Amino acid sequence: MNASLVIVGAGPRGTGVLERLAANLPELYGDRPLDIHLVDPHPPGGGRIWRHDQSPLLWMNSTAEDVTMFTDETVEQAGPVRPGPTLAEWTGADGQAFLSRQRQGAYLRWVYERSVAALPPTVTVHEHRGTAVRVSGSRDGRQQVWLAGCPAPLLADLVVLALGHLDAELPPEQAELAEFAARHGLTHLPPAFTADSDLSVLGPGEPVLVRGFGLAFVDLMVLLTEGRGGTYTTGADGRLTYRPSGREPVLHVGSRRGVPYHSKIGYPPSGERPPLPRFFGPAQVDALLARPGKDGIDFRRDVWPLIDKELGFAHYHRLFTAHADRTRMAWPDFEEKYAAADPGSAALQALVGAAVPDPADRLDLHALDHPLAGLRYPDAEALQEGLRGYIEADLARRHDPAHSPDLAVFLALLSVYGQLVRLGDRGPWWHGFFSYLASGPPGPRLRQLLALSRAGVVRFLGADTTVTADERRGVFRAESPSVPGESVTARALVEARLPEPTVAHTRDTLLRSLYAEGAAATPAGLLAVDPADGRILDRAGLPHPRRFALGPHTDARAGGAFSRPRTNAPAFRQNDATARVLLAFLRDRAARPTPLPTPVPASGTAPTPEDTHALDH
């Protein structure tokens, strides 16, 4: 029997692994026979998130020139570089355009087909349009991958989980609100990929409470406005005006910060880039990992000060080299003193105060993370005006090269993310902070938000928004200290965010079964893997020799399955390292055939869980 590899998940991450397999196979595997099985209920390439079957109104969150699936010479990898076009080059679109997710899905499908075509004729790719529900098999023998509705498993020498974003059980607070909604005939939409949510339950003119002000909210906003026939017109001054269709609900949106994610930066990079990494690079990560007990690393105590200093270095490097007229010190002098000062120390604050006269030119990460801290508005209308002013100022700043230190911080955030992959899961706060600063919506989306606010279709709730169940009135109630003493009630609540990817509470049967059978989870609930190659760890810390996992459900999650060109993207590094380990294992296995196992699941019958997709061989 041929050597066999099963990849569960054929979206962009599975496609990226396939591309690296094709690139490395001539060196490591030669012309030996190999069967590659791809398992996914959605079409290969785009997978669930980038599938064609979604609204064309939903955009990519990156410009077309900033999206690629191909490695380049900046990627630290042992395998060969196989150049390929960016999304902009492949589509012929303006590089600064934000294309639809449908077009990104078409690009991913093309990358998938190109990767399959690059495989030698001795490699056969089998597509299984179904759902994997369990993996069984001993550590030293072939694995059995069980598919819903199929009585016999796929046999695999190796299994790679590239599962992407997954649905999850509701946490206790949301479960209580869902139960409250069921008792009172209310609507509660849990965290989900917005394109999968049934928004038809939100009626025209109905007040809807929305928790979450990130990208899931932007999708919700689009689908409930333009998606219901509303239109925008542009005035002579360039200002947008929204023309309602009459079918829109009224969205009352709040979150912890109370503001949307920062706009994408709207100008190209120019001039000298900050030399990164400087204060948080491989040497610092090596030192952290060398401490006794990796789990003893505390993010706030041990890691965040290094990140703080790295982001500050990038900010001030750009300020001093590109906007020297706004500084009072030579860069070499500032750099020497900055390097010697501790993050957050009085010495550092004094240095910045002396060298950077305008407080607006100083980097304050705490203030950025708490934009409405201490602000109180006399009434809801004053809050609406205040938030519109905040968003207008953010748009102006993020499109003005005079504030190019913001772009330097963005580049530093990418560098930091690449280093953090080696440290494993450090909790949800960092990922939220990264997305808030570096992965916000395109500028046009925030201009639409302003128009919707002026039209009364979107209403802002403020910071630290809480939602409670009003048992007496049978409604949801939202409150925020931004407007003391006021509240908003509604019969509908939308949790506008993706589910938390924890292995204990995911709805993915395969991942939950692995956890139940001994796979390790981090304190934050992610699947624990070896950061070097993605092997799944057990609770004793031992890597499984035949099971691998990559993606957002693991503690080695990278910023995304595709990335900006020339940024040494963590996902590309991971894909290459894993592909090379897979091929080396399969090469050695081909030299020493393994006896076939008897494929009998623990229950004696093939698993058939509810809510799974039928298999189409």
Short recap of the structure:
The chain is α/β, with parallel strands linked by helices and 617 residues long. The chain has helices at 12-28, 87-91, 101-117, 172-184, 215-224, 282-289, 299-322, 331-340, 346-355, 365-369, 380-398, 405-420, 428-438, 443-455, 509-516, 570-591; strands at residues 3-8, 34-39, 123-128, 132-136, 143-147, 154-156, 158-161, 187-189, 207-211, 231-234, 240-243, 250-254, 458-462, 466-470, 475-479, 487-490, 492-495, 535-537, 543-549.
List keywords for this structure.
617 residues, FAD/NAD(P)-binding domain, six-stranded mixed β-sheet, five-stranded parallel β-sheet, FAD/NAD-bd_sf, L-asp_N-monooxygenase_NS-form, HpyO/CreE_NAD-binding
Question: Would you write up a description of this structure?
Answer:
The protein has 617 residues and is an alpha/beta fold. The chain has 3 domains: 3-168 and 501-591, 3-Layer(bba) Sandwich (FAD/NAD(P)-binding domain); 186-261 and 459-495, FAD/NAD(P)-binding domain; 282-438, no CATH class. 34% of the residues lie in helices and 14% in strands. The chain has 16 helices and 19 strands. The protein has helices at residues 12-28, 87-91, 101-117, 172-184, 215-224, 282-289, 299-322, 331-340, 346-355, 365-369, 380-398, 405-420, 428-438, 443-455, 509-516, 570-591; strands at residues 3-8, 34-39, 123-128, 132-136, 143-147, 154-156, 158-161, 187-189, 207-211, 231-234, 240-243, 250-254, 458-462, 466-470, 475-479, 487-490, 492-495, 535-537, 543-549. Strands 3-2-1-7-19-18 form a 6-stranded mixed beta sheet, with helices on one face. A 5-stranded parallel beta sheet has the order 8-17-9-12-13. Helix 1 (12-28) links the parallel strand 1 and strand 2. The longest helix has 24 residues, at 299-322. The protein is globular. It starts with a strand and ends in a 26-residue tail after the last helix. This is Adenylate cyclase. Residues 6-165 form the FAD-dependent urate hydroxylase HpyO/Asp monooxygenase CreE-like FAD/NAD(P)-binding domain.
